Amino acid sequence: xxxxxxxKIWEMISSTKxxxxxxxxxxxxxxxxxxxxxxxxxxxxxxxxxxxxxKVAEVSSEQQVNVSYADPDKQNYVSMSxxxxxxxxxxxxxxxxSEILRTWFPKGKQDPDVALLRIDVSQAEYWxxxxxxxxxxxxxxxxxxxxxxxHPGGNEKIKVD
Length: 161
What we know:
Distance between the termini: 6 Å
CATH superfamily: Electron Transport, Fmn-binding Protein, Chain A
Shape: globular
Radius of gyration: 18 Å
């Protein structure tokens, strides 16, 4: 992944407070909201979790996960796939911790059940579209006149090294 691609992804996901993390729960896909804990994107996503949480058991048996972000107001959508691993290293916990996390972890970062899910992204895809009423009006008119859907935004598939 090139630096400009990583910057583009970060630009699209940084303002989205929650992502949906999808795991394999014994053959059934299961998603739940998660808040990423990082200041940039370099091909890795970090999420705080309880080590005892069911999703940890899910990723220990099937590491492949999907993380999706949606910001309909900005017309930004990002889907990332990769391998999840549990990280219990205190230095990593310290590096990603912010005080607002006490909402979910009242005992703080020293709680022995606090851990991180590290997602090493192997591929990403994004869709972005201009979000103006004029663009949407133009698209509607074009579709009505030509019978073809407009393509005003961008879509890119990215392989992450």
